[in-house]
Design goal:
CATH class of the largest domain: Alpha Beta
CATH superfamily of the largest domain: Fructose-1,6-Bisphosphatase, subunit A, domain 1
Distance between the termini: 41 Å
Number of domains: 2
Order of helices and strands: HEEHEEEHEEEEEEHEHEHEHEH
Number of strands: 15
CATH architecture of the largest domain: 2-Layer Sandwich
Helix content: 25-40%
Number of helices: 8
Radius of gyration: 17 Å
CATH topology of the largest domain: Fructose-1,6-Bisphosphatase, Chain A, domain 1
Length: 262
């Protein structure tokens, strides 16, 4: 598949970070873990992976800005471009030995995400997209699901945990409206992979509230380049700013969004 020099740098970096994380994942019981907040953990592996990513990206593009989950935001000499990185999306899964987590890297230009990479080392699945060239998983072109009927469809979301419990009533209300009418709802605990799975047609739609931009930046362009519509749950908002996201195939979006937004 075609790709820019920046995308190739992102792919190489994601694989390098993935190899580091995979080594620690095999020894997950021995990880040194510190509590970052209620229900939100940070591990030695997480910090080490971000350092790998930061070193690789900033060496290749030293003028770009930086936003990462585990480090301070930094404006680059080139104010129009910045990396947006989650070195380990699905930290809680990782710490519990669940093989569902990913490295997420996005490149923003003038406020728009133009490239994204999400790498799942456990399954060796590399999801990638660049503006105008489509979305891919390894060597396979991605397209969203063609299912029209909500009754036949599978959706994904996040369920608030300790520390985000104020979001629980809205989520329960969403589930009460959606679950009686669909094939099922999954909560796998990795927002980047949820969006990648919408792009791959594994889910018909995904929604979640109060995310950070590094959780979803790469997933947004991958989903859109695969044919998904991606918006804020608030119709006037921007998911990369307000953190409230809804994504679905074009044939599903209006019906699905109406249920969530009511």
């Amino acid at each position: 598949m075609p790709g820019s020099a920046n995308l190739n740098i992102m792919l190489k970096t994601a694989r390098k970070a993935g190899r580091s994380l995979s080594k620690d994942f095999r020894e997950v019981e021995n990880l040194q873990v510190s509590r970052k907040g209620a229900g939100d953990f940070v591990s030695r592996a997480d910090i080490a992976a971000e350092k790998i990513i930061r070193d690789e990206l900033m060496e290749a593009r030293p003028t770009y800005g930086w936003v990462g989950e585990e480090s301070d935001e930094e404006e680059g000499k080139d104010p129009t471009r910045r990396w947006i990185v989650d070195p380990l999306d699905g930290t809680t899964n990782f710490l519990h030995g669940l093989p569902h987590w990913a490295v997420s890297i996005a490149l923003e230009h003038k406020g728009e995400i133009i490239s994204g990479v999400i790498y799942d080392p456990c399954k060796d699945e590399m999801f990638l997209a660049e503006k105008g060239i489509g979305a891919w998983m390894n060597e396979t072109r991605l397209r969203v699901s063609a299912r029209h009927s909500i009754a036949d469809s599978l959706y994904a979301t996040g369920i608030p945990f300790s520390g985000r419990i104020e979001d629980l009533p809205e989520t329960i209300n969403d589930l009460k409206k959606l679950m009686p009418n669909c094939s099922g709802v999954r909560r796998y605990g990795a927002a980047a992979l949820d969006l990648a799975y919408v792009a791959a047609g594994r889910y018909e739609g995904y929604w979640e509230r109060n995310l950070n931009n590094w959780d979803i930046a790469a997933g947004v362009i991958i989903a859109r380049e695969a044919g998904a519509m991606v918006e804020s749950i608030s119709t006037a908002g921007d998911p990369l700013i307000d953190g409230n996201i809804i994504a679905a195939s074009e044939v599903q979006f209006n019906k699905f969004a109406k249920i969530i937004r009511e």
